[in-house]
Amino acid sequence: MTQTLTEFLLARIAEDEARVAGFWQGEDPDFFWGPDRIRSECQVHRRIVERVYEEHGLRGELLDGILRDLAAVYADHPDYRQEWRP
Q1: Buried b (16+ CB within 10 A) or exposed e, 55-65
Q2: Where are the domains of the chain?
Q3: Is the pLDDT of residue 29 over 60?
Q4: N or C: which end of the chain has fewer CB within 10 A?
Q5: pTM above 0.90, yes or no
């Protein structure tokens, strides 16, 4: 079976969610991915934001929604603005 990129990403996200749930229930001692995984995710998020901005100049509801979704992870940060909520 050949997965599309979307199917691949959704499957990885589901695995991560399951690992998080397992960690909080004491089932997965290897949950923490370490600095390489965290750095990789930061690089990917940065590229997404830069591509949206550089290629499309922050216009369009879809592109704005993508950035709002990425920013939602940081909703507890003091600089996060409520008007940015998805």
Answers
A1: eeeeeeeebee
A2: 1-32, 33-86
A3: no
A4: N
A5: no
